[in-house]
Amino acid sequence: MNPQKTIRIVFFSDTHLGFDYPIRPKVKRRRRGQDFFDNYHRVLEFTSDSKADLLIHGGDLFFRSRVPQKIIDLAYEPLIEFMGNGIPVFLIPGNHEHSNLPPSLFLNHQDIHVFERAMTVTVERNGARISVSGFPFHRENIRDRFHTILDATEWNRNSADIRLLCFHQAIEGAQVGPRNFTFRRGMDVIQKIQLPTDIHAILVGHIHRQQILWMNDGHKKNKIPIIHSGSTERTSFAEKGEHKGFFDIQFGRLSDNRWRIEGLRFIELPARPMVDLHLPKTLKTSEVTSFLQNHISRFQQNAIVRLTGDRDLEKDIRNMMTGKFLRDIVPETMNIQFGSGFNARKKETQSREKG
After folding, report:
1. Which residues of 174-192 are buried (b: 16+ CB within 10 A; e: fewer)?
2. 44-98: per-residue pLDDT in tens?
3. Which of 69, 121, 207, 290 sits most deeply, having the most CB atoms within 10 A of its CB?
């Protein structure tokens, strides 16, 4: 295919930069924060090397709304270097950022477009007019407010060869978690029937599992993809079985000059394995060290280990599970954390003893 008749867009989301990245750590141990930045850089490098036409981020660039200046600079500085490629960048503020990206002079670049409000940006690339419409995350009743917000983008007011809609919300039919929870009809869920059909693709952040839903106006060839790129790293054990990455989307121009999607390629990024290590109630204090060593030796050396325990686990064993004790056993290449309730039961036991 003639390269002048193709448009390529890289779409990624939920990078959560700053997650587990303390600026002045009190304890020297491996942190997960660099993993998130590494995958962020990999997406930028791929986009640059492949000479894509647009780069779109679907929200939650950062892991929370207030982040240290160093984290802000670590996130924005690579974008300025990236801008040397002449590839426009589009950023949707997500819920973790409270719908506003941290301000910075870096964002003043003419080719960086931040959707601080509902709006549409149109650019010309390789002979095509591409409009990207979007809005920041809305927390309250997006279902009933969606049409008003969509109209405010003025998504269909200007001529365009390729129309894209991008936001950071839950959509009917999207699934998350190990039990495949499916979003249905809550007030925080956009219904498929509310979405515009005179559009080429809908790019969605917020949902951490990569997946593609479809809208169909009755003709198979006109199916419209609702693309969730998912997060670029595993943020919790609920995602431990999920593949992480981003989408490379290719549009082709037909003989009548109309454009349509010719390719949807999910490109996987490295994600460290997550494993559970359960302490049974039959475990004795004298066996703890050897038990941990034997099991940990079977895990991949870069694993993220979650420690869980039976409710009736000996209180002395729970009290043994200090950071220092575990760091002496677990290789520096691993991360270890406690499962939900492990420390709560430890405090519960201590409280009962004091009472």
Report:
1. bebeeeeeebeeeeebbee
2. 999 999 999 999 999 999 999 999 999 999 999 999 999 999 999 999 999 999 9
3. 207
CATH topology of domain 3-268: Purple Acid Phosphatase; chain A, domain 2 (3.60.21)
Predicted TM-score (pTM) of the model is: 0.92
CA distance 289 to 279: 11
Residue 98 backbone zone (phi > 0: left; psi -120 to 50: alpha; other: beta) = left
Q: Rounding to the nearest 10 degrees, give the CA dihedral for residues 255, 204, 132, 150.
A: 110
In whole angstroms, what is the distance from residue 169 CA to residue 247 CA? 18
The pLDDT assigned to 300 comes to 95
- The token pair at 230 is 């998912």
Identity of residue 252: G
CA nearest to 171, candidates 215, 127, 133, 129: 215
Walk across the sheet containing 6-12 and list its strands: 112-114, 89-91, 54-57, 6-12, 245-253, 259-268
Q: Are 134 and 92 in contact (CB under 8 A)?
A: yes
